[in-house]
């Protein structure tokens, strides 16, 4: 059985702990490898390698760090097919979707190559006579990233290039369900010339996460995953004095106005609801149909749901692949059961979808519900599967209220041709990322990604300018030279003079 190793101090290692976890091929349902589940001893090895590497890395000119990132970027591009194949084999998503994820991750590397520019401070000459002042951003030290299964390349790359460009050492703890891609990324960074100990990978489950959260030398933790774990990571990490950004789950609503371009809206919702089997934190899981558009919307969506091409991710012509595990498949199907029991109309039922030749794979078909109401479990919970819930609202105000009352606030979208409505929506909606006729409004790498409410705990969004702030601390310097120093001690608060 293949064992997926940690990557510590520039080397692959099985680590100290003997615990292992199965890594499945979700398309066949077979175990294809095992991953080493590390513990506090393995983490200590990584922290000591990072401790040794940090002083030199922090003192390395930003331009030199940037040149290494340029090489990383080129290697990621060169090996994009290989990375996509690794993602697809362990996660199950289709190869074209996996390649898209690699590109979105690569864009964060491209942003981080601007390290000398993004780390520029602010300077004010003559804040008082003979006195100058400036600010600069310095690295925190050792930081860690804990990532979810659904983007095994993109989410580590939301974090690692930002942490490294700003002079930190970074330890990734990837999802134990698809851990290989992180090891491959660490090898790419090493090949590009990154010194050993600056980027490392430790595998594990909650024991490793808790060891990270409690380790006194880890100064910052960047987390992406489900809301209950995000809350735990934020509470425990901050209680141990760390800076934490913890991005959680979502229930993203799209408001469909009667004046929208219906065919284009249906295209957009089809990809956003069922693409990647709905396992995206920015998936649209609720469509709120306003007024008379509902019947036509549901009919057209149903037609699309019934004709999606579903199968293994390695066949690039498929629209969607399997779910991540058998347990997750069961959970999704149970939630669909609950929707039926609570009175929603199941227009398309994906529960019994079998792929011939892949009977043991973790597949479901696409499901579509109509007449979903606020109190139903399928509305209250993040399903994280290929299930779209349609709700009906009499007017825009009712639809907006629904979005704003959701405990989640990750992404949201409106489909309309009316500028007034779109502007009102943008201004008043309680969510971190907003699309106008754009179903999945994921900000580009040079902006920052993050939700509101239960979709993010902490103060900083991910990558872009917010990523620079998260991984650095500000130092303000005030300076004068002997000619500008007045004689005598000063006892009052200094003011302009
Ligand atoms: P998850 O919360 O189960 O796991 C995330 C990470 O936490 C993994 O590395 C895992 O090993 C660790 N973990 C799991 N259980 C733990 C526990 N009890 N204690 C400590 N650590 C634990 O999430 P997942 O199933 O891998 O990913 C799907 C979730 O992530 C969805 O809720 C999705 O919305 C969310 N997500 C959010 C964003 C975002 O940007 N907001 C992006 C991607 C995914």
UniProtKB/TrEMBL annotation:
Keywords: Oxidoreductase. It holds the Pfam family Aldedh. It comes from the Bacteria. Gene3D superfamilies: Aldehyde Dehydrogenase, Chain A, domain 1, Aldehyde Dehydrogenase, Chain A, domain 2. InterPro entries: Ald_DH/histidinol_DH, Ald_DH_C, Ald_DH_N, Aldehyde_DH_dom, MeMal-semiAld_DH. The keyword Oxidoreductase applies. Residues 18-477 form the Aldehyde dehydrogenase domain. GO terms for molecular function: methylmalonate-semialdehyde dehydrogenase (acylating, NAD) activity. The keyword Cell division does not apply. The gene is mmsA. Its EC number is 1.2.1.27. This is CoA-acylating methylmalonate-semialdehyde dehydrogenase. It is an enzyme of class 1 (oxidoreductase). NCBIfam families: MMSDH.
């Amino acid at each position: 059985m293949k064992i997926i190793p940690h990557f510590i101090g520039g080397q692959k290692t099985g680590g100290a702990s003997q615990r292992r976890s199965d890594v499945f091929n979700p398309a066949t349902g077979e175990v294809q490898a095992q991953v080493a589940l590390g513990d506090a001893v393995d983490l200590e090895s990584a922290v000591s390698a990072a401790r040794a590497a940090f002083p030199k890395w922090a003192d390395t000119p930003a331009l030199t760090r940037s040149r290494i990132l340029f090489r990383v970027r080129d290697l990621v591009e060169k090996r994009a097919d290989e990375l996509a194949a690794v993602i697809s084999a362990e996660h199950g998503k289709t190869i074209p979707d996996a390649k898209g994820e690699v590109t979105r991750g690569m864009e964060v590397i491209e942003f981080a190559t601007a390290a000398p520019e993004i780390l520029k401070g602010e300077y004010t000459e003559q804040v008082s006579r003979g006195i100058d002042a400036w600010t600069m951003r310095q690295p925190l030290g050792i930081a860690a990233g804990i990532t979810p299964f659904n983007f095994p390349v993109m989410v580590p790359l939301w974090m690692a290039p930002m942490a490294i460009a700003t002079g930190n050492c970074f330890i990734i703890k990837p999802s134990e369900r698809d851990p290989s891609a992180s090891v491959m990324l660490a090898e790419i960074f090493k090949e590009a010339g990154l010194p050993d100990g600056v980027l490392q990978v430790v595998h594990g489950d909650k024991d490793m996460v808790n060891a990270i959260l409690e380790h006194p030398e880890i100064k910052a933790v960047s987390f992406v995953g489900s809301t209950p774990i995000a809350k735990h990571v934020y509470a425990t990490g901050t209680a141990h004095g760390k800076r934490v950004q913890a991005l959680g789950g979502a229930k993203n609503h799209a408001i469909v106005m009667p004046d929208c371009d219906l065919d284009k809206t249906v295209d957009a919702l089809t990809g956003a609801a069922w693409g990647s089997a709905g396992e995206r934190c920015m998936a649209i899981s609720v469509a709120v149909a306003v007024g008379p558009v509902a019947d036509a919307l549901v009919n057209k969506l149903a037609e699309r749901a019934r004709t999606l091409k579903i199968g293994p991710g390695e066949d690039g012509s498929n629209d969607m692949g399997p779910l991540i595990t058998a347990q997750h498949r069961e959970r999704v199907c149970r939630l669909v059961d609950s929707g039926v029991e609570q009175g929603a109309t199941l227009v398309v039922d994906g529960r019994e979808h079998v792929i011939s030749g892949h009977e043991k794979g973790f597949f479901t078909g696409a499901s579509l519900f109509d007449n979903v109401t606020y109190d139903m479990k399928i509305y209250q919970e993040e399903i994280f599967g290929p299930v779209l819930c349609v709700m009906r609202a009499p007017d825009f105000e009712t639809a907006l209220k629904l979005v704003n009352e959701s405990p989640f606030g990750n992404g949201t979208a409106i489909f309309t041709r009316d500028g007034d409505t779109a502007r009102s929506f943008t201004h008043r909606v309680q969510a971190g990322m907003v699309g106008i006729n754009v179903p999945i409004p994921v900000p580009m790498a040079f902006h920052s990604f993050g939700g509101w409410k239960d979709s993010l705990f902490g103060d900083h969004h991910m990558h872009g300018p917010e990523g620079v702030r998260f991984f650095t601390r500000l130092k303000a310097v005030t300076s004068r030279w002997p000619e500008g120093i007045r004689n005598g001690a000063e006892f009052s608060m200094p003011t302009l003079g």
